[in-house]
Write a structure and sequence with these properties.
By secondary structure, this protein is α+β, with helices and mostly antiparallel strands. It has helices spanning 9-38, 66-114, 130-179, 185-214, 224-234, 236-241, 259-275, 308-311, 335-345, and strands at 45-47, 61-63, 220-223, 244-250, 254-257, 282-290, 294-301, 349-354, 360-367.
Length: 369
C-alpha cells in the first residue's frame, strides 16, 4: 500500500526535540532578561568622581540603562539561540536514531515474516523497557505462528494421506470389478459402503475439528456430569461388546461452553478409552468435580503400558496409540486431536498421563461460570 510522501518519524522527533529545546532556551533567556529589567533604570546614569584635597578627581560611576543592556545582551542571546538550534538538530537526530533503532529491527523482522521466514527472531538486548516487551511479544507471536503453520502443514499432509486411502481402495475395487464381470455385486456394494462410510466419518471429523479451531459457537452453562452420563449410555453397547465396564462418578460440574462440542469431547474421550483397553475385563472410569473457578473431568482406562513419549504425541492428528490400527471401531485418528481443539477453544487445559498399571488418564479442566 503506497502512502503519500511526508516527513519520517525520525525527522519529526528531531524537529520536536529541537523545538522543545529552542523554546525552553528562549523562555529561560526571556525570564532572565525580564528579571534584569526590574532593577535597571531606563536611562544610563553617569556620575563623576569627587575632587580630593589635592585637586584630583576620583573615579566616576557609570550605570548602564536598558538600551545599553539590550545592545549587549541581544547578540549573545541570538548566538545562544542559534547554538541551541544546532544542538537540537544534531542531538535530536542522534537521539531519535537511537530511540528508533529497535523499531527498525521490528520492521525488518516483520518484512521477513511477511516473506515467509517465520524462524527469524529479534532477540532485542537491553533492559526490560517498552521496546523489549514489544520485541519479546513479537518473538513469542512468531514462535506460536511457526508452530501453528508447521502443525497445519503436518495436518494437511496427514489428512491428504488419510483421504487418499479410501479413494485408492475404492478405485482398486472398481478396477477389479470391471475386470471380473462375474463378481458378486452385493459383496462389492458392501465393501464400497464400508469404505465410503469411513471417508464420510473422516470428513465429518475434519469439519468438527475446523469448527472447534474457529470458535464459531455460542457459550452456555453446561453440566459436565450430565454429559458424562449421556456419553456412557451412548457407548455402553460398544463397551459391552468389547467386555469393558464404564463407571461414572462425581458431583455436578458446571462449565461454560458449547454443549454440542463438549458432548463430542466427552464422547471422544470415552470412546478412545473403550477402544484402547484390555481385550477383556477392562474398565473406564469417568469422574467429574467442581473447583472454585473450574470444572474438572477425568477419564481413566486400563490397557497397555504407555511411555510418556508416546502419550505426548496422542493429541496429534491421526495418531492411534502404539500403532496405526484399523479395526471396526478404531476411528479415524482424530479423536484426541478434536478433544485438544475443543479444550483450547474453551480456554481450558488438557493433561494426558500414563497410568502406572497401564492405560491412560486424561484430565480436562474448563472455566466455570
Amino acid at each position: 500500500m503506497r502512502r503519500a510522501p511526508g516527513l519520517s518519524v525520525r525527522m519529526k522527533l528531531t524537529l520536536s526535540y529541537t523545538g522543545f529545546l529552542l523554546v525552553a532556551g528562549v523562555l529561560l533567556l526571556v525570564v532572565v532578561w525580564v528579571f534584569l529589567l526590574r532593577y535597571v533604570p531606563a536611562e544610563a546614569i553617569s556620575l563623576r568622581g569627587e575632587v580630593d584635597e589635592n585637586g584630583m578627581r576620583g573615579p566616576g560611576f557609570f550605570i548602564p540603562g536598558r538600551y545599553d543592556l539590550w545592545r549587549a545582551f541581544a547578540p549573545k542571546a541570538a548566538a545562544a539561540a542559534v547554538l541551541l538550534l544546532v544542538l537540537g538538530l544534531v542531538g535530536g537526530w542522534f537521539l531519535a536514531g537511537r530511540m528508533l533503532a529497535p523499531v527498525a529491527r521490528l520492521t525488518e523482522a516483520t518484512r521477513m515474516a511477511a516473506g515467509g521466514s517465520l524462524s527469524h527472531r529479534i532477540r532485542l538486548p537491553g533492559r526490560a523497557d517498552e521496546y523489549r516487551e514489544l520485541a519479546d511479544a513479537f518473538d513469542a507471536m512468531l514462535g506460536r505462528l511457526e508452530a501453528h503453520v508447521a502443525e497445519q502443514q503436518r495436518f494437511a499432509a496427514n489428512a491428504s494421506h488419510e483421504l487418499r486411502t479410501p479413494l485408492a481402495i475404492t478405485q482398486t475395487m472398481l478396477e477389479v470389478a470391471r475386470s471380473d464381470p462375474g463378481q458378486e455385486v452385493g459383496e462389492l456394494v458392501e465393501r464400497l459402503f464400508l469404505v465410503n462410510s469411513r471417508a464420510i466419518d473422516l470428513t465429518e471429523a475434519l469439519l468438527l475439528l475446523s469448527r472447534a479451531d474457529q470458535r464459531s459457537f455460542t457459550k452456555d452453562e453446561v453440566d459436565l456430569s450430565l454429559l458424562a452420563e449421556e456419553a456412557a449410555e451412548t457407548l455402553l453397547p460398544l463397551a459391552e461388546q468389547r467386555g469393558v465396564a464404564i463407571r461414572t462418578t462425581g458431583d455436578v460440574a458446571p462449565a461454560v461452553g458449547s454443549q454440542a462440542l463438549l458432548q463430542q469431547m466427552i464422547v471422544n474421550l470415552v470412546h478412545n478409552a473403550v477402544v484402547h483397553n484390555l481385550p477383556d475385563g477392562g474398565t473406564v472410569d469417568v469422574a467429574t468435580a467442581a473447583g472454585p473457578r473450574s470444572a474438572v473431568l477425568t477419564v481413566e482406562n486400563t490397557g497397555a503400558k504407555l511411555t510418556p513419549q508416546l502419550v505426548s504425541t496422542l493429541t496429534e492428528p491421526f495418531q492411534r496409540g502404539t500403532r496405526r490400527i484399523r479395526t471396526d471401531h478404531a476411528g479415524v485418528g482424530l479423536g484426541l486431536a478434536i478433544v485438544k481443539s475443543i479444550v483450547q477453544a474453551h480456554d481450558g487445559t488438557l493433561l494426558l498421563e500414563p497410568r502406572d498399571d497401564g492405560g491412560l488418564r486424561v484430565t480436562v479442566e474448563l472455566p466455570s461460570p
